[in-house]
Description:
The chain is mainly alpha-helical.
Amino acid sequence: MNGFPILSIMLLVPALAAVACLFLSANAARWTALAATLVDLALGVVLWLSFDIGGAQWQFTEYAPLFGSFAWALGIDGYALLLIALSVFLMPICIGASWQAIEKRVPEYMAAFLLTEVLMIGTFAAQDLFLFYIFFEAGLIPMFLIIGIWGGANRIYASYKFFLYTLLGSLLMFIAMLYMSITAGTSSIPALMAYDFPADVQTWLWLAFFASFAVKMPMWPVHTWLPDAHVQAPTAGSVILAGVLLKLGGYGFLRFSLPMFPEASAQFVWLVFGLSAVAVIYTSLVALVQSDMKKLIAYSSVAHMAIVTIGLFAFNAQGIEGAMMVMLGHGLVSGALFLCVGVIYDRLHTREISRYGGLAINMPRYALLFLLFTMASIGLPGTSNFVGELLALMGTYQVSTTIALLCTTGIILGAGYMLYLYRRVVFGEIKSDEVRAMRDLNSRELWLLAPIAAVVLWMGVYPESFLAPMRKDTQMLLARLDRAKPAGDSLPTKGKGVVPAAHAEAHGSAH
């Protein structure tokens, strides 16, 4: 693979297909989009199989100077590999989910989704600071259009709220990037990851990046755009929003906040832990009382992303690897749950939980798959989310028993709202003739859900496949973090304060 620009090709294929879709009929646009996403999926498989585990940190690198210090610089490490794999895996499923559900402006819709794929892959592969920013921010545009044009009745409000929240948070980050590139004399992300900014400067830079990544995650209390966006977005829009776009914040913490500002990261552990603990409990309680299925799953996403942030800021291997596993598992499971909601919404055209009931009687295949994804969301052993949540919470426990205990309540509350949802939708008596007439999954819907189910079980049964590619990157990140000393013992802790050096023993038991 040396010298073969596979990352550029993965960007070029959907970009060309997006342009082509604009000049095609609706049906031709559907097939073109599906073909392009399947080509990218195949290239993603090649990328996965060709990745040298334990080799160089940055692989498949490409570099072409453009103007000034700005360059077309691409490359991936283990973290980026896993998130690109998640992106290219979910995208053909999103196209399939939109096959019949989207009837107006189909060519434009397919082009918007293909553009979203370009920008997601570009964000994870970018190795230049400003190239990353372009991909990171441009990702707002197609999702803004998808929600605003093809969304529900209140789509305009939801799309503008989504756009303004996420854009305003990133303006501070851009100012910080300008300062960093001028101070360090480079905009290369790998070079900046090894550059030592003064501790007082790190504080302000960390806060500027935090303003952007906290909204993208989204962290409490800047999470309020997410339920509105999910409820109004079409099914495939919700899948890609929950599956990949929420992961941009977690990736940003891994790529920028932790390695570039280690002292500031240690200084603000109390802030991240505090906001995350509140998010887990508060949004889980809010999810319990929702009457709209999409809104319930949206609030559960905020709680799951809070587990990601506590894992990342535990400063040990179990926490960081667990956070990445939660991101991957949540991307699969929440995407599948939104697809499950979309299946019955297409039949009854309502997301109100009270309108359903008894679906196990006339939709047994649907009930079985919905049960698998419900159990995975709860964190049942043998499914993807169990591995990630266990590692993240074990890593947190080494740092703070109190925070670990508070966040563990999220698993209990998660079981409460997910099982309550499942019981009301699937069990009981059929309430109306409309529900009685609902047909079970067709072959297209089975083909959409079955691959996700297979990967959810694969992650749960053999997580080493996903832990191995990121192991070396985690070691290098922890070596960088070990140079940071905690700002004090302000957290309730197990042992003495927040101890980055705890990764040495934690790493051995994380495998």
